[in-house]
Amino acid sequence: MTEDPAPVLRLRGINKSFGAVHVLKDVGLDAWAGKVTALVGDNGAGKSTFVKGIAGIYGFDSGEYLFEGRPVSVSHPKQAAELGIEVVYQDLALCDNLDVVQNMFLGREIRSGLTLDENSMERRAEETLRGLSVRTLKSVRQKVSSLSGGQRQTVAIAKAVLWNSKVVILDEPTAALGVAQTEQVLSLVRRLADNGLAVVLISHNMNDVLQVADSVCALYLGRTAAQVDAGSTSTTQIVELITSGRSGDLGLPPTLAQEAVA
Amino acid sequence: MSTATAVPSDTQDQAVAGAFRGYLDRVRGGDVGSLPAVLGFVALVIFFSAMRPDSFASTRNAANLLNQAAPVIFIAMGLIFVLLLGEIDLAAGYTSGVGAAVLVVLLTEHGVAWPLAVLACVATGLVIGTVMGALVARLQIPSFVVTLAWFLGLQGVLLLVVGEGGTISLSDETILSILNKNLSPALGWVLSLLVVGGYAAGAFLGSARRRRAGLPVVSPAVIGLKVAGLAAIMVAVTLVFNAERAVNPAIRSLRGIPLIVPVTLVFLLVLTFLLGRTGFGRHVYAVGGNPEAARRAGINVPMVKIACFAIGSMMAAFAGILFASYSNGVSPTTGGSSTLLYAVGAAVIGGTSLFGGKGRVIDAILGGLVVAVIQNGLPLITQKSGIQFIVTGAVLLLAASVDALSRRRAASTGQ
């Protein structure tokens, strides 16, 4: 496990129950600036619950939530946004009838007096897209309804990084995309990290994970099986962590892995 | 994309051609905008003028047509806000009736000064709209049901206030003048100059600001063509209305642009500014386009909805003032029968979508003119009111089909 600079985002011993169902059991995750951290796990492993908690959609029942080393309390999406944590959900939450600039600034429009400052917004949107080396958009004044799936994903990601955010969490960004568009989005994910952001990539797809991730955190039935360095771990090991919670001396102790199944 | 100021004329030509091609592409892609309304208006005017050259195609009738159209246009301008949300306000017609009743009762029976009566009328609309909006946004009752209930309730209120079969007449000069007086011919030219000059100044200044900000600008030639087109329309309109149209000019001269034209232009300007240039307007479109995305962006969706219903009902109440002005009073049917359907028809014919998220205030005016031409021209051809209903219904259906088809086309071509 990489122990170089302190993680921007560190979660330890997180628990979350919905009624009688104990969904997250002592889950943990580290995300570093400049790195892509993949959050993997089978369906029902608790990825979505975990991310929604990080984003402040609901609070965790217990556990440590450290942001830049300080313990913080996040129980509302606004608080997460103020810290600089942005989530791009799978459904992207874009308005088809608005253009790219209008979507990127939705709810946080730049105003000058009574009116919207369209020119400043357009310029900043252009700058952000240029900073991400996005060249797939013809014009930032195109309506989102005219964009392809990959372009929409790009807009949603650009919207998330527009606010000098420090952590960007991407929920299955390539799930609905074709091969070429998947490549585009993955290279964009890589560039986000290279620009100094901490990226958390939720994914089902091992190819995506191996292509861009620096670190892999595997969830297994509501527990963190292990967070491992992507470079020094084989695909087989990651798959085993996902499917059985352990791989050799990596992962959960045999008793816990067994107990989780029971 | 040309950013230079002095562009050689052949590139200017290319810019114009490019802008025109872009427009054609948008239309082909399903983004027809107000094109059907404009074409429909022109076709209907030509048709009725050919059929009834002396009664329809007279300047007198043209002025009457505008005054006739005004109340429906005002209701439709308010409805645009509700339609943009993807909601409907079935009570808008009777809201205008009740607004008219409040106005006329205060003026005639209580001797209240007209500014106060107008204020009370618009405040009535505000209350009606806020309550309806709150029921839709907070209790999440479908707007169809909420406004249907208000449609019935307000009809009852109007009947109780005015009395069955009764009418209350209005004698306030100021209110009556709105739909009965005209601008002097000189003022008409001033108005035209203001409209064209204002549009040109806005377009060129905005373009200059974009150039300074280093953003791509529309070619000056394209703006120039638009300004020239608007100028041509304004000159034609002013010439038509400044011509003498009295039956016997020796007794009483009747000339000039109807007063309702500048009144409508002011509302058009203010509401268009609200929708297009303010944060509130942006949020209205966002809620209409994707309420969930709007909510996640931190927009107070219920407040936006309530505000839209309030604006819609205030505009309807204001339309009530116009009804009172046009018919010299109020009756239990003011704003009733097919008023609301004409208003919805006007908005949809003008290019506003019933599915929400797409529409402009000017749609109400363009569509309202189409509806008014049918309402005005058909009785000159046939006395059968049955045919008039059928034709208006058919036009509404046609407009809704254009809306639905352009949506499908837009979805398939990705526009």
TrEMBL record, chain A:
Keyword 4Fe-4S appears in the UniProt entry: no
Source organism superkingdom: Bacteria
Database matches in SMART domains: AAA (SM00382)
Pfam family, one: ABC_tran
UniProt lineage: Bacteria, Bacillati, Actinomycetota, Actinomycetes, Kineosporiales
ABC transporter domain: residues covered: 9-246
UniProt entry keywords in alphabetical sequence: ATP-binding, Nucleotide-binding
CDD domains: ABC_Carb_Monos_I
Name of the protein described by the UniProt record: ATP-binding cassette domain-containing protein
Organism per entry: Kineosporia babensis
A GO term, aspect molecular function: ATP hydrolysis activity
TrEMBL record, chain B:
Molecular-function GO term, any one: transmembrane transporter activity
Keywords: Cell inner membrane, Cell membrane, Membrane, Sugar transport, Transmembrane, Transmembrane helix, Transport
Predominant subcellular localization, coarse grouping: membrane
Transmembrane segments: 32-51, 72-92, 112-137, 144-163, 183-205, 217-241, 253-275, 306-327, 339-357, 364-381, 387-405
Subcellular localization, as worded in the UniProt entry: Cell membrane
UniProt-listed InterPro entries: ABC_transp_permease
Function text: Part of the binding-protein-dependent transport system for D-xylose. Probably responsible for the translocation of the substrate across the membrane.
PANTHER family xref list: ABC TRANSPORTER PERMEASE PROTEIN YPHD-RELATED-RELATED, XYLOSE TRANSPORT SYSTEM PERMEASE PROTEIN XYLH
Name this polypeptide is given: Xylose transport system permease protein XylH
Source organism of the structure: Kineosporia babensis
